[in-house]
Structures are given as C-alpha cells and as structure tokens.
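Newbie here. two chains, one complex. Structure please?
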Amino acid sequence: MINHPRIAGGTVEAAVSIRDLTVAYDRDPVLAGVDLDLPAGRLITVLGPNGAGKSTLLRVLAGTLKPLRGEIRINDRPIEEERRKSRIAYMPQQEQLDWDFPLSVRDVVLSGRYGHIRQQGGWQRFLPPSLIRGDHYAAVRRALQDTDMLDRQHASIDSLSGGQRKRVLLARALVQEADLLLLDEPLAGVDGASEELIMRVLRQTRDQGHTVLMVTHDIMGARKSADHVVLINRQVVGQGPPDAMLADDMLARVATINWIKPMAEDHPVSRCDAAETTGQGA
Amino acid sequence: MSERLYDMGVGVVDAFIGLMMIGVNLLPDALAESFQYAFMQRALLTALVVGGMCGLLSSYVILKRWSLLGDAISHAVLPGVAIAYLLNIPFFIGALVTGALTSLGIGVIERHTRIKADAAMGLMFTAAFALGIVIISQIATSTHLMHILFGNVLGVRYPALMLTLAVGLVSLLVVILYYKELMLYVFDPVQARSLGLNTSVIHYGLILLLTVAIVASLETVGIILVVAMLITPGATAYLLVNSLPAMMVLASAIGMLSAVIGLSLAVRLDVASGGAIVLVVTGFFLLAFLFAPQRGVIGRWLRRQRIPRPA
C-alpha cells in the first residue's frame, strides 16, 4: 500500500498545482493552458510523444524556463519560494553536462547541498567544499550509499560510465532531501542493473513521503513503476492510475493529437515525431 | 584621491614589493639581477598580480568556453580608454563601462535575434574596437595607442599599480568566498537556478571580474594579448590536474611564473614585455601538451604501445 503522509481532512494535498500554464519558445505554444494537480507522496510519470512538452514542463518547474503565463504552486506555496528553500530537486539528462569537468563524484553530489549551506547563512556559507562537515557530510554519504557510488566517490567524473553518470546525478538530487524530485528521463540509456537500482531508490524516496515526478517516453517502464500517470501532449490528455492511462485507447489518443493536428496545419516535423512514438507504443 | 589615501596606497604597494623582493632574492642570480631598479620592481609586481589574477580566472574561461568572450571584452575596452582620455576621467572607469556595455550588447543580440553567440561577439567587439581606433586616431599619438594595444609594463607608476593590486586582491577574495556558487554556475547553470541561486547575478558578476582583470592588465600585456593570459594558463593546468581547486592554483602559478620569466627575458633581450610573457606561457602549454602524464601526447602514445596485441 502506498504512503500518503500529507493526508489532511481526508483528501490528499496537491504537491504540484498548475493553472493555465502556457509556454512558447518561438511561435506555437509547447504547452497551452495546462491545468494540472498532482498528488503528493507518489511516484508520478509524465508520458507523451517527442515534442509534447514533457521536458518543457519539467524545466518550468525547475525554474530554468520562464512561462508565458500561468501560476504554479508547490505544496500550496509559490514555486519561487520553494525553490529558494531548496525544496525542489532536479535531475537533468546527462547530455546537458560537460563530463570533462575537473570534479570528483563527491564534489558533484555535495553541490546538491549548496542551497542548504547558503540558507544556513553566517560565515560558514563561505567555506570551501572540502571543509564542509556535519549534516551535509552525512547526507552526501547516504546519497552515495543509496546510489551505490560510495566506492567511486573520489573518482573523476570523466571516468564514469553512462549508468554511473545517471546515478551521480540522482545522488545529487537525493542529497537535497527535497519535497519534490524532478527527473528528466532518468532511465534513458542505462543498463538493466542501473535501471533496477534507480527505480528502487525512487520507490524508497517516495515511501519516505517525497513526491517523485519523472518524465519519460518509455511506456513499459511507466507501466511497471508508476503509481500515477499523466499523459501529456501540449495539454493534459488524462491522468490516473497506470492501468487506466496505459490502455491502448488512451495511448492512441495521446499520440493521435499530434498526428491529426499537424496534418491539418501541414507541419511535417511533428508528424514524424508522432509516428515514431506510435511505433514505440506498439 | 586624497593625499593621505595616496600615501597609504604607496605604503601598501611598497610593502608588497618588499615581500616580493624576499622571494626574488631566492632566485638564481642571473634571474634576480634584472630586478635591482625600482621601476623593474614595480613592473614585476604588476606582472605577478596580473599573471596570477588572469591565471586564476582562466580556469573559468576554459571550462565555461568563454575564450571568445574574453577576446571580445578585451577589444571592447579600447573605446572606453579613449573616451576616458577625452573626458579626463580615470581610464579604468571608461574601460569598465564599454567592456560591460559590449557584453550586455552581446547578450541582447543573442537573445532577441537568431544570431548565434560567436557571431554576436565578433560583431560587437569589432564595432567597439573600430570606435576606439577612430577616437584615438584623433586625440593621441601612435605611441600612446601602441602602449594601450601592447602594454608598457616598464612605465607602470604607483596609481596604476595600486589599482592592479586592489583588483587582484578583490578578485582573489571573490573567487575564494564564492567558490561554490561560481563552480556550480560554470558546471551546471540549470542546477544553480533550480537551487534558487540568482544566475544572472553570477553570470554578470563573472563577466565583471573578467572585465576588471582585463582592464588591470592593460599596461602589462596590452589588450591584444591579455586574452592569452586568460586562456593559456587554464588550458595548461587543465591538461595536468583533475580537480578544480588544483587547476585554479596551478593556472595562477603558471601565470605568475610566466610573468616573471617573460619580464626578465624582455629586459635582457630588449623585446616587448607583453609578447615575451605570452610566448613563455605558450611554452608552458607546449610542455604540458607533450609531457603531461595523463593527457600529454607522449604519455598517451606510450600507454597505447603497452596495450598487448590479441594473440
């Protein structure tokens, strides 16, 4: 049975509450008037074809992309405030980073605590990372242990395999001990063992009461692991338990929106995307 | 500047020169004897501070891939110097203003058009440089222009040296106190943003540091060659070590060492000091390129030879 640590008055409080979110890069909005309430303390998977706005949604939540309009509240507080207090953790796709950077695994994981260290204030926020001790030190050790990277902690990050890079980024997100964990394709390109480890850690994080929100286009993975599925394609197509959402007719619907609309508007690029995703679903 | 403050500044500079000379006297006589004269000692202190400061910042320039931006800012400083000369204000202020305006302009073009960063930089800095050349051709002699472009470290006076020293100490302090923020921003700006850091402040703060370092280097290596000091020490250290603090310390040391060797070569051979310093630092890079244990060409070739052939 799933934990619901935030049950108040019999209803589950919304971890993420989005109203009228519209995001546009150039002309056509990637997300158009999205309204979405997500339950707290669950393992939530956002699923949709390429170009459906999944990563965009995540980047807006992480604060790196400014929406055209819309309001987002996290645990019923303004998102900016939650971000400043380090209550939102974000795990990017590893391609976004330069792995030739002269840092060790530990350096990277510890950087997940920089927000906490700043909030503590005082002269200690100016200390170099090598002198950081206390809670931060313990949290880093735990995160390294959970992701099975403790024995590689002093390794330079350029020596890591793809799966290990994912695990380092996961550890950096875990170490924040954030209420909301955002993950961009956490299982893309990892081997079976790493995939199993990552999913085990995510379930454990959820069981501790955190909300885990991951974006993927891997339908099989979502079916196995998610408590709650959101289908998205520029708008919310539906949300609910995996069995209902991952039924063939729902998947057909989420892919078809992209399929029909671009035909009418003569937009060949999106059409290819939709075709590719339908292929994956079959 | 009030007289008392000026005297204090002279005192501080002289104290630093005294400290430096203790070190210089430990050097082999052949190297140390060039630094007997007061003007040579001032030149050496300037060169050391500039070498150390640029070396320190060069780690960020390398890792953030900002080499072209450094080049752009250094050229954009020229019209500021010219305008300051025209208005009779400290050239430092003019240079800072046009350097900062140019980096803002680059950002505006990049964000609001489809022009990419490299073209935006090339466009802005050549325009600023052209403006500088036009103004200077009206007001100053060509010797003056040559000094700005290529430096004149042997003519450094107390006010300029005080400024360089102050700027060097402030950058060192900022880099130490905000090490974590700067490292996170350079490695992963998205993560920095999601931790609630104000990335615009860090971004423009880092650009400001670079601009200030460039302005302070005007007299030592000149605006054409300063970019070498912002790239080569960092690039050399990047081939040699695997941790960011070590890279920054090593790059700083390489910058300072090149400044000393380059300066004494310049005096001995009677050649331009800026060029000599840059050639020395390039020499260090070549050594690392060939002989770095992990990433040097020779080391890698040797390791490949040791891989056994399949039987």
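Moderator note: Residues 248-265 of chain A form the longest helix (18 residues). The domain at 7-248 of chain A is CATH 3.40.50.300 (Rossmann fold). Thread marked as resolved.
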